[in-house]
Design a protein that fits this description.
By secondary structure, the chain is an alpha/beta fold. The protein has 4 helices and 8 strands; from the N terminus they run ββααβββαβββα. It has one domain: Trna Endonuclease, Chain: A, domain 1, CATH 3.40.1350.
C-alpha cells in the first residue's frame, strides 16, 4: 500500500539517512485513510507522478541539493533544496519537480531553484497541473502539463 522514497544527495551522489518520504499505491486509499480530510491537490499530484514513474520502471528517490550563496549581510549561506523526484532507469536520469501552478516569474524561480542548483546534464523537468504547450526555459528546464506527462511517455524527452 505504501512506497518509500529515499533521500538522495544529488551533488554528493549518496543516500542520506534522513526521514524517507512515503507515497500511497492508490490515491483513493490515501484519501480513505485520512478520512478525506487532507485534499491538497499538490500532494495528490505528487503522489500520482510518483506512481507513474514507478509504472514506467524507474527507481524513484527524493533529491537533496545543497546550494551555497550569500545573504543580505554578505555572509555565506548553505541551503538544502528538495527535488521532488530523481528518476533512474539504466543510464537514464531525470530530475522532476511537481508544481501545481506557476502563475508568475517569482513562483517559477522558486520551483526551479533546486533544479538550477544541479550541475550535471541530465534532463530537468517541471510538471504543472495546467494544460500547456511544452517549452524550455533559458536553463534548459522542460515544462510539461500533467496530461502530456501521463499520456505520452516520450514527453520527458522533448
Amino acid at each position: 500500500m505504501l512506497y518509500q522514497a529515499k533521500r538522495y544527495d544529488v551533488k554528493g551522489r549518496k543516500y542520506i539517512g534522513s526521514p524517507m518520504k512515503y507515497y500511497y499505491s492508490d490515491v483513493g486509499l490515501r484519501n480513505a485513510r485520512l478520512n478525506f480530510r487532507q485534499q491538497e491537490e499538490n500532494h495528490i499530484m505528487e503522489n500520482i507522478l510518483y506512481q507513474e514513474l514507478r509504472v514506467r520502471d524507474f527507481d524513484v528517490d527524493v533529491g537533496i541539493v545543497t546550494v551555497n550563496g550569500r545573504n543580505e549581510a554578505g555572509k555565506s549561506t548553505r541551503t538544502q533544496l528538495e527535488v521532488d523526484f530523481v528518476a533512474n532507469r539504466g543510464s537514464q536520469r531525470y530530475y522532476i519537480q511537481s508544481a501545481l501552478a506557476i502563475p508568475d516569474e517569482g513562483k517559477r524561480l522558486q520551483e526551479t531553484a533546486s533544479l538550477r542548483g544541479i550541475g550535471d546534464s541530465f534532463r530537468k523537468i517541471v510538471v504543472v497541473r495546467d494544460h500547456i504547450m511544452p517549452w524550455h526555459d533559458e536553463n534548459g528546464i522542460l515544462y510539461l502539463g500533467i496530461e502530456d506527462f501521463l499520456l505520452n511517455e516520450d514527453a520527458m524527452n522533448q
